[in-house]
Design a protein that fits this description.
With 295 residues, the chain is an alpha+beta fold. It is 75% helix and 8% strand. A four-stranded antiparallel beta sheet has the order 2-3-1-4. Helix 2 packs across helix 9 and helix 9 packs antiparallel against helix 11. The longest helix is centred in the first third of the chain and has 39 residues. The radius of gyration is 31 Å and the shape is elongated.
């Protein structure tokens, strides 16, 4: 009797067309979820690269109109910076390099000696505490009263905000897809109960409990979700690697931060398992709640 009951249990949801449709729906859901998660992890990586590159970096700008005064203040400011223990590196920017950077906006006039180009110094700090920044600014202004000290981090603060927003949107999309997956599972479980209501009544008469029936549904739906999730993940991985190869060809340092690390790939690989567990739990709760209402 027990063997017959188990065999009947295995056939309860053995609707090949239905399970096939369920697996493909989950493949699509996981495909979109993995893409959204990969985008979120990539933007998070870019934000981390920006933080590492710009934390503790300053730019000293001396825009005194007279060239000799500008040169004298730049030399004094550079010497003052190099004497500070808080400064790890201080390097004067080559004026020719500045002219090249201005050429797209000023044309050939950017290299005109009559056009005053500010003297600039790149500074890397050993630490970024407010007290350190205050000491550095005071030392620079004491040596060069007309100097302006800017944190490079503040220049790209809007970019950092956009990256944070995009990461949050990607995370929200992943949660939305998880909610949609749970909703699909609940609908599929209820449809399965309606389709196999007569068989379930027979199982109850043979001694099966609600928990045993729910375990059958959750096993079938969890397996379909896992199979579909692996398929969707595999396709999404292919898309992510293709996009990554195209971005690598650009050769940009900022775009290089969009590469996914080993930890990111591990997180993406765990998504099908996480969604299968979510589907299993949702199916169990939905079936038990439906059976309680019927009985």
């Amino acid at each position: 009797m027990t063997g017959r009951l188990l065999a009947a249990d295995r056939r309860l949801l053995d609707d090949r067309r239905g399970t096939r449709a369920m697996a493909w729906v989950m493949a699509i859901m996981l495909f979109l979820t993995v893409l959204a998660a990969a985008f979120g992890l990539a933007t998070l990586g870019v934000a981390a690269v920006l933080d590492r590159q710009l934390a503790g970096r300053l730019t000293v700008q001396i825009a005194t109109p007279a060239e000799h005064a500008r040169t004298r203040e730049a030399t004094a400011a550079l010497a003052a910076l190099q004497r500070l223990p808080e400064v790890r590196r201080a390097v004067a920017v080559d004026p020719a390099h500045l002219a090249d950077m201005l050429e797209p906006w000023l044309g050939a006039d950017g290299a005109d000696s009559d056009l005053p180009i500010p003297a600039m110094i790149d500074v890397d700090l050993a630490e970024t505490s407010p007290a350190t920044l205050a000491r550095v600014r005071a030392a620079v202004r004491a040596a060069a009263p007309g100097a302006r000290v800017d944190r490079q981090e503040s220049w790209l603060a809007p970019v950092r905000s956009v990256m944070t927003m995009l990461t949050g949107m990607a995370g929200g999309l992943v949660l939305l897809m998880a909610g949609a997956t749970a909703a699909v599972v609940i609908l599929a479980a209820r449809a399965g109960l309606d389709t196999h209501s007569d068989t379930i009544d027979v199982l109850h008469m043979l001694g099966s409990t609600d928990v045993q029936v729910a375990r059958l549904f959750q096993r079938r739906i969890g397996l379909d979700t896992l199979i579909g999730g692996v398929i969707g993940m595999a396709v999404a991985f292919g898309v992510v690697m293709l996009v990554g190869a195209q971005l690598d060809a650009l050769g940009s340092d900022l775009v290089a931060g969009l590469r996914l690390g080993v930890g990111d790939w591990v997180i993406l690989a765990c998504l099908p398992v996480a969604f299968a567990l979510l589907a299993t739990l949702a199916a169990r709760l939905a079936v038990l709640a439906a059976l309680r209402r019927v009985l």
